[in-house]
Amino acid sequence: MNSLQLEIKKFHERTFPDAVPKVTIKHLQREMNELRDAIDKDDLSNICEEIADCMIILYGLSNLYKIDAEKEIIKKHENNLKRKWKQPDSEGVIEHEK
Q1: Residue 93 in domain
Q2: What's the pTM value of the predicted model, to 2 decimals?
């Protein structure tokens, strides 16, 4: 677990001692909505802040499950590099082939 995740773990344990995954996801959804609004306004400063909020919440969720987030991101990225990717769908989203 990297030092950032450990620092966030300490903060979350002090600040949100009763955190549970389902509530954490609701918080993440609210922050994602704020990120979408910042993107819609093309407000780079706010985009940066909201991305950071989302990442902090995701680290907190990782900590609830005792997951080393950096290790899992690296593993997933390595898998994604090996995948074949489809063409964009009607919304522009590109997904990997199953």
Answers
A1: no
A2: 0.91
